[in-house]
Amino acid sequence: MFIFLDIDGVMVPAKSWQRPELLPDGFPAFSRSAIRVLQRFLDERTTVILTTSHKSSHSLNEWKQIFKRRGLVLFNVMTLDENVGHLNRKDELMNWFETNEIPENFVILDDDTSLNDLSLNLKSHLVLTRTLIGLTDHHIDDILRIAQPLSISKMMR
Fold it and tell me: Cα separation of 41 and 155, whole Å?
């Protein structure tokens, strides 16, 4: 499965009135619920494609370490291309899908409402989080539904 993953508003609730807790690596801590949910879907067959605006600020190895320090092991990690054209998230994703083979199983985890304008086919793979809350257990059923045809044993973990 491919997981297109945003950070702010998904892994880190974005509360303008509250500064997020920074870990010693200088990057915000992920919410416990987001860690718990994402962990269910990570294994050696999962590829995480970072869509976050922070994607170009760290190397892929540094991203693996950032996630590992937060209790998540990324076996395969990629990023969208650097956003030199200052595109919105929808257009960044559309560019990726236009230039890459669309994977059979993928989910888009993001809080960016511009993604509501994705084509119906792509939007059917979107789990839109609420910026102030992020990824929670309430999103698991949506992810499982989208992630079909994953094996039943994998889904029941």
Answer: 8
